[in-house]
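Example for tutorial group B:
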């Protein structure tokens, strides 16, 4: 089987290969995606011999001054026409028990192929001046692609023990392509769960995010659960099993997956999908089931997993406010409540409504119709009030200094309490948001005419 290698960057490197009489191969995802008829995102070059020396040849050929070298890993990067190209020596990896960072030594292409994670990623193609290159398949990767199987080149127990992040990669590729993880490989994941402790939270989160981004992300979460990895990474989700939701009379874990699946059908937004997965995170304890507990748990999880602060804030906002939308979809829709929702939702309001639409769609037919009718009324009223008052871009006409100067208090919780009181009154339309009116309101609070 041959693949097309006419990409300009490959043609540029092929000129150096020919000039230096080097042995260089395209490997991994590039070849796999070409075989599948997909557009590759990354290009990986493996050099039989000295990868760093070949990188220097590329730099010299194209008059590039800078070569970034990683001698420990026999790797080098070359800044090339707006991007970076990495060249890796064909290598063998030797792992210490408590580290994912191997010792490496140069080797043949075939031995290098054996160290890779899964057979579908072991395909290679030689770089030459020809635009067509024959696929090299030492381990049956083409057949596994055809069958849709995730299988390790070597003993899966050893593969996962040496680099436990590969357990998550197996599930990621399964959810990405819809492939089945070979039974022996899946069993080996269960046997190596404790090894995940040597992997950093950042690397785990990176793989988790890629699972979330995949077309079959809920299936990926189900695999994480079945394998036991979910309980290691997110015990807060695992303990939702058996906890009943009040509105749906369903298992909280199952319902979280149902909402996540609905979200994944209508949105590719990573943070929204994660919000769906964690929206019932506090339901494991009915005595503590409230939005404050949920937000605390989201922050604990995000901090532990080294998530970006922006992601944590987004998820917290959706989890905090979705119940208010659902409540408004069942009860009387008042301008007071809608204005507060607009103010608190801010830039998140569209995503919040998308989330709630998916949430309501998991109801039974009778309740879904009732909720959905009110949901549409709420959506319409949100648009009307936003056009009229612009509450999402609301700025109070006074600030903290005004409050302190007027009431004569310069620290303590009273300042925040006063600001919240005035903000709430402005948002619901009881006080005009003008500096003159708000300063007068502060004076009334100061002299005791208004009690808060």
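The residue assignment follows.
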């Amino acid at each position: 089987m041959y693949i097309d290698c006419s990409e300009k960057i490959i043609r540029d490197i092929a000129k150096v290969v020919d000039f230096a009489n080097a042995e260089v191969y395209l490997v991994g995802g590039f070849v796999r995606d070409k075989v599948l008829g997909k557009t590759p995102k990354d290009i990986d070059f493996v050099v039989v011999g000295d990868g760093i020396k070949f990188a220097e040849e590329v730099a010299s050929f194209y008059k590039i001054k800078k070569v970034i070298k990683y001698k420990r890993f026999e790797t080098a990067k070359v800044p090339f026409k707006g991007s970076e190209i990495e060249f890796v020596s064909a290598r063998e990896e030797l792992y210490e028990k408590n580290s994912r960072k191997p010792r490496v030594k140069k080797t043949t292409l075939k031995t290098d192929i054996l160290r890779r994670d899964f057979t579908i990623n072991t395909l290679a193609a030689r770089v030459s001046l020809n635009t067509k290159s024959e696929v090299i398949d030492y381990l049956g990767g083409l057949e596994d692609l055809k069958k849709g199987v995730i299988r390790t080149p070597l003993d899966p127990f050893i593969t996962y023990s040496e680099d436990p992040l590969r357990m998550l990669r197996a599930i990621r590729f399964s959810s990405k392509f819809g492939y089945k993880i070979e039974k022996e490989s899946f069993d080996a994941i269960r046997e190596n769960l404790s090894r995940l402790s040597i992997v950093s939270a950042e690397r785990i989160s990176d793989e988790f995010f890629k699972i979330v981004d995949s077309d079959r992300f809920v299936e990926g979460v189900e695999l994480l659960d079945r394998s036991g990895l979910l309980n290691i990474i997110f015990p807060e989700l695992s303990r939702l099993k058996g906890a009943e939701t009040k509105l749906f009379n369903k298992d909280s874990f199952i319902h979280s997956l149902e909402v996540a699946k609905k979200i994944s059908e209508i949105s590719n937004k990573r943070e929204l999908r994660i919000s769906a997965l964690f929206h019932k995170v506090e339901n494991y304890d009915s005595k503590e089931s409230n939005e404050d507990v949920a937000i605390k748990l989201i922050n604990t999880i995000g901090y532990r997993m080294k998530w970006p602060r922006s992601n944590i804030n987004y998820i917290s906002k959706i989890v905090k406010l979705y119940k208010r939308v659902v409540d408004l979809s069942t009860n009387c829709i008042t301008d007071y409540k809608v204005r507060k929702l607009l103010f608190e939702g801010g830039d998140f309001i569209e995503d919040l409504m998308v989330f709630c639409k998916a949430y309501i769609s998991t109801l039974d037919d009778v309740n879904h119709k009732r909720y959905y009718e009110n949901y549409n009324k709420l959506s319409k009223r949100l648009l009307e009030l936003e056009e009229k008052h612009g509450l999402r871009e609301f700025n109070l006409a006074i600030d903290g200094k005004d409050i302190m100067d007027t009431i004569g208090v310069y620290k303590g919780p009273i300042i925040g309490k006063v600001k919240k009181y005035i903000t709430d009154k402005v948002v619901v339309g009881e006080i005009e948001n003008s500096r003159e009116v708000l300063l007068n309101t502060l004076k009334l609070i100061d002299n005791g005419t208004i009690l808060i």
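Residues 400-446 form a domain with the Serum Albumin; Chain A, Domain 1 fold (CATH 1.10.246). Compare this with the pattern of hydrophobic and polar residues in the output above.
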